[in-house]
Write a structure and sequence with these properties.
single chain, about 200 residues, alpha+beta, six-stranded mixed beta sheet, about 25% strand
């Protein structure tokens, strides 16, 4: 009577190792995809936060803009002062993007991964987001006293940019917005559109 074979042959061991290697490769690939997905989600959330912050800043800024008796006072605002006049025949294009204004103590075009402003003087924090604005005064309303019209709203677009390699965006303050727009292979973009209404005074 033959005794039962014990142990494993070399071929069986090699086959088991090959199966283990294939499985481990799949697990590693899934981990890489998960890490990239988490990183992209974090960047996307940060960009949305920065864009929302700028939209709220513009809306709060409109409290200073009321054109009493039809006399424009948009020059008293911090950010809306940079808006032009909307022309439906020649709507704003790439050349109308501006770098979000840097107002000491109030705003910066550069933000860190958490959405906090990074000022020019801050050399210790890396900024990963850069914000551009495109603003145009629109929605004409007749003045009750003289019959003329004046714009009572600003059409505002907020664009938040980051580098796809997630490196600090050191070129934010030195590169023209139009040049950044042309390089979408290097940058990621998030857009937010809003209309900012004037705080109307009695005209």
């Amino acid at each position: 009577m033959k005794r039962a074979r014990r142990g494993y042959t070399v071929i069986e061991v090699m086959m088991a190792l090959a199966i283990l290697a294939v499985g481990a490769t799949g697990v590693l690939a899934l981990q890489k995809v998960a890490l990239i997905g988490n990183s992209n989600a974090r960047i996307g959330d940060g960009a949305r936060q920065v864009a929302s912050t700028w939209a709220e800043r513009l809306k709060a800024d409109a409290l200073q803009w009321n054109d009493p008796l039809g006399i424009s006072d948009i020059g008293e605002t911090r950010w809306l002062v940079g808006s032009g006049t909307y022309d439906p025949v020649n709507p704003p294009g790439p050349a109308q993007w501006i770098l979000a204004p840097e107002v000491p103590g109030w705003s910066s075009p550069v933000a860190d991964i958490h959405g906090a402003d990074v000022t020019v003087a801050d050399t210790t924090t890396n900024g990963v987001f850069c914000t551009h604005l495109q603003m145009a005064r629109a929605v004409q309303k007749p003045l009750s006293l003289v019959g003329a019209t004046h714009p009572i709203a600003v059409r505002a677009l907020v664009r938040v940019i980051w580098r796809r390699d997630l490196a600090p965006i050191t070129e934010c303050r030195t590169t023209a917005p139009a040049s950044i727009e042309e390089n979408d292979a290097r940058y990621g973009f998030y857009y937010l559109s809003t209309v900012v209404g004037q705080e109307e005074a009695s005209n």
